[in-house]
Structure formats: structure tokens, C-alpha cells
Amino acid sequence: MSNEREHRRGLMLVISSPSGAGKSSLGRRLLEDHQGIDLSVSCTTRPPRPGEVDGRDYHFIDRAEFDAKIAEDAFLEWAEVHDNRYGTPRAPVMAALEAGRDILFDIDWQGARQIWAAGAEDVLRVYVLPPSMAELRKRLFARAQDSAEVIERRLARAKAEIARWNEYDYVLVNDDFERVYAELTYIYRAERDRRLRNPWLNEVVQRLLDEPI
């Protein structure tokens, strides 16, 4: 039975939120606690933030190289956000799904929509809301990763991003991190067990039907 279970198909878990609402923290915790899921490493034209490492957090490339990859159809999805481009390399994601591994995407609604269009049956979409706009502002300033000007631009875009909440399968309000993380974990584990993602069950069912009573 254990070998049969290895033949499951992976899923693409998309987590989106306005900047500062908590999607990255939730995603990191999920990666730490579950061995069967990997983080999709996107390409981006923005410069690295303090502590970020090329190839681990993002593949940092210039706009010319990014445009070349678009022309080659090398991205599963791509979008321009806050004057920078972000894109998901297609080949490693497809290989992971075939191998039965899950892929986590920390992306915005534009990327989520493109990934859904590329393979809806493989996609699980979760949106994370802040408890209030005041709390969102507080979190953005507290993490001290961006200038005040950038933070104000992120806040200005937040409501337009939040308005896309109904394009997602599940929506969580991040007013208590531990509770929301528990809900995310439950959703993820339940989705892993969906029939369509576990084709090995066909053999089990057939064996049961063929066995004499």
C-alpha cells in the first residue's frame, strides 16, 4: 500500500494576499511542517531585499532575460507588480506534479488566475485577508522591508487586490496566526486526499472488487 500511495499526483497550492497580510509567513510554516511540498522559486526583475538569496528566494534576472523567457513560453504564469515582473518557470513545476510532489506558490491574483487557466484540476487557491486596513498598515511598517513611499503604494493597491477574493477556493482572515495556520493545514491535507489526485486508488478499488467474498 505504501508504494501505491507514492503514485499520487501533486497539487499546486496558490496562496495570495495583499502585501503584509501574512501569506509568506503561512507558507514558510507549511513548508517547515510538511516534507511533500516545495516552494516555487519565481523569476523576478526586482532587486533582492536584505537577506534574500538568488536561487533560493527568487531567480533575480534583468528585464531583457525575462522578456526572452516570455517569448519562449517558459513561464507558467507571469505578471507585472509594483513596476517589477514576476514569473513562474513552467518545466520544474510540471516535473514535480508528475513526481507526486506539491508546489507552493506565493503569488498575487494575476498569477493565480493564469495558473488556474493552465491546469485547474491541479490547483488549490487560498486567499488570506488582513483583519483590517489599519492592521495591514501596521504590519507593513513593522517588517521594515520597504520605504514609506513603497508601503503607501502597496496599501493603495490592497483594496483592488482584496476585491479579487471571490476568485479563490478558500478565504482565511489572518487575525490569529496559529488558528489560521491550523485551518490552512487542514485544507491542504484534505485536498491532497481528493480522488483525482490519487490515481493509485483505482488499483485498490479494482482489487477489492476482484477479491472473492
Summarize the model shown.
It contains 9 helices and 9 strands. The protein is 45% helix and 19% strand.
Task: Walk me through this protein's architecture.
There is one protein chain. The chain has 213 residues and is α/β, with parallel strands linked by helices. It has a domain at 2-38 and 100-210: P-loop containing nucleotide triphosphate hydrolases (Rossmann fold), CATH 3.40.50.300. It contains nine helices and nine strands. It has helices at 2-5, 23-33, 63-71, 90-98, 109-119, 133-143, 148-162, 177-192, 201-210; strands at 12-16, 37-39, 43-44, 59-60, 75-81, 84-89, 102-106, 123-129, 170-173. The strands form two sheets. It has a five-stranded parallel sheet with strand order 2-7-1-8-9, sandwiched between helices. A four-stranded mixed sheet has the order 4-3-6-5. Strand 5 (75-81) and strand 6 form a beta hairpin. The two termini are 21 Å apart. The mean pLDDT is 90.
How far from one another are the termini?
A: 21 Å
* Number of helices, where a helix is a run of at least 4 consecutive DSSP H or I residues: 9
Structural class: alpha/beta
The rounded Rg comes to 19 Å
CATH topology of the domain at 2-38 and 100-210: Rossmann fold
Reported CATH architecture of the domain at 2-38 and 100-210:
3-Layer(aba) Sandwich
Q: In percent terms, what proportion of residues is strand? A: 15-25%
**Segments where pLDDT lies below 50 for 5+ residues?**
none
CATH superfamily of the domain at 2-38 and 100-210: P-loop containing nucleotide triphosphate hydrolases
The helix-strand sequence is HEHEEEHEEHEHEHHEHH
